[in-house]
Amino acid sequence: MKLLRKFTKKTVPGEYGAEQESSTTSNRSNRADGANHKEQHLGLVLLYAAPPTLSETSGPSVDIVAIHGLGGDLRNTWTHKNGTLWLRDLLPQSIPGARIYTYGYPSKVFLNRSVAGIRDFSTHLLNALSLETRDNTKASGPRPIIYVCHSLGGVVFKQAMNLGSLKYGNEARA
Question: Secretion signal: which residues (predicted)?
Answer without folding.
Answer: none
